[in-house]
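Hey, I'm writing a tutorial for new members on how sequence and structure tokens pair up, and I'd like a real worked example in the thread rather than a made-up one. If someone can provide the structure for the chain below, I'll link this post from the tutorial.
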Amino acid sequence: MHPAGSAAGTPRQRKWPSKRRIPVSHLGMADPHQLFDDTSSAQSQGYGAQRGPSGLGYPTASASPQAAFLADPVSNMAMAYGSSLAAQGKELVDKNIDRFIPVTKLKYYFAVDTLYVGKKLGLLFFPYLHQDWEVQYQQDTPVAPRFDVNAPDLYIPAMAFITYVLVAGLALGTQDRFSPDLLGLQASSALAWLTLEVLAILLSLYLVTVNTDLTTIDLVAFLGYKYVGMIGGILMGLLFGKIGYYLVLGWCCMSIFVFMIRTLRLKILAEAAAEGVPVRGARNQLRMYLTMAVAAAQPLLMYWLTFHLVR
């Protein structure tokens, strides 16, 4: 407290603070990039404590119930035991999920960006201009799809399948034939054909004894690219009738045939060359026929799943 005379005397000179940088340790902040102070522990620092009778707002020395609970060793032991059980349960669930559903592998197939999606769609519609079809590897592992347009992905097939079902519902609605049962039948039939394709190819690869790095997820990705052309054919059929449908679908069928030939050739025939199998050998001929059959089945299924949607 200053005397009254000094307060009424000479006016105080206002001192402006200097612009000196204060170290982070002086500010009491653990993170220099932290925008706000951490007030989560305010309960134990005085906000939850009882106020003193003086009314000045200072907390009394008595601890809050929360602090007393946390200070109890039995409670701390129970909390530690519960945390360990939760961690063990999470680890067990993750192991079982990875055993049946390869979540880590699925993350690779969805590692895409907008640039990759645009390039991949252009490759599906115009595969004739593409020259390098080799998949890039880094330390014996393929790079993520967003870094290599030749890598298979599941984002485009999944989105294309959903869009195909929606476009099919639109086509049925324009013809006054829409019903939830019919739309569900359309989606289930497309999934059934895809499942049959995958099983038939896996059985054929086993019978022909092809040692390839082509996985089941790769097959689902490659076989799911045909839905992109099916969407284009249906939309053109809705806009321009049968002529637009056949023109666009025909172009997409030829494109997917070339795309599958050039992609599967590196997956199936290249492994045969690496094994030293003669190019004109009987087993290599079977592999070539298998590649041609898989590629030829795509246009047939594209027509079978779309011709009844355009009238």
